[in-house]
Task: inverse folding
């Protein structure tokens, strides 16, 4: 169990990547971890596009940089783009009845597993929700009807030292009854 909390402590958003390529097997393992994530009604409403070619990665980076954001991605050797796929009928009906949108929740869970699997393999990640969705879809040949929910930068961090985590206290966010 200690190892699990060590892993959580080690995962942080990396915004300074070395040019070292990410091994394909490691990227595959990250997506495998995401594949095993739980989802409402086991709907698995997700698909993953891994981009690790020197041709495409910089083009993905450009799609993340509107309004001066995410400039650090220029050097990033790999990205995983997570699109929302159609949920199963039971998940959609359940969501309607309970007035919930389960698919983005499911994608969040898959993303967490993906990022922790990356950390476990010595990689670093940054989850990004700021991107030009239509340009990304065009670049990656993803249908206009779909939503891209997140882009994950994956690579080797230049800085080895971890930052102090800035978080609300347990007292502020949790109650026990
Ligand atoms: C849904 C989501 C969207 C995010 N979008 C961005 C982004 O576009 N650019 C960025 O640099 N960080 C982004 N982040 C990273 C957060 O800023 C970061 O997780 C948070 O500040 C906590 O820091 P840590 O990840 O280092 O622990 C995003 C994180 C999440 C979960």
Result:
């Amino acid at each position: 169990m200690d190892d699990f909390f060590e892993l959580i402590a080690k995962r942080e958003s990396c915004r300074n990547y070395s040019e070292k390529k990410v091994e394909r097997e490691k990227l595959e393992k990250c997506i495998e971890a995401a594949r095993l994530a739980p989802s409402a009604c086991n709907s698995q409403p997700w698909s993953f596009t891994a981009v690790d070619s020197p041709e495409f990665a910089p083009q993905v980076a450009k799609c993340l940089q509107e309004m001066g954001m995410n400039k650090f991605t220029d050097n990033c050797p790999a990205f995983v783009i997570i699109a929302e796929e159609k949920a199963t009928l039971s998940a959609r009906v359940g969501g309607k009845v309970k007035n919930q949108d389960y698919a983005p929740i499911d994608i969040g869970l898959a993303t967490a597993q993906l990022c922790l699997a990356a950390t476990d393999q010595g990689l670093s990640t940054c989850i990004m929700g700021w991107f030009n969705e239509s340009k990304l879809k065009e670049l990656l040949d993803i249908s206009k009807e779909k939503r891209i929910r997140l882009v994950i930068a994956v690579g080797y961090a230049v800085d080895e030292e971890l930052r102090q985590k800035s978080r609300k206290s347990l007292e502020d966010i949790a109650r026990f009854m």
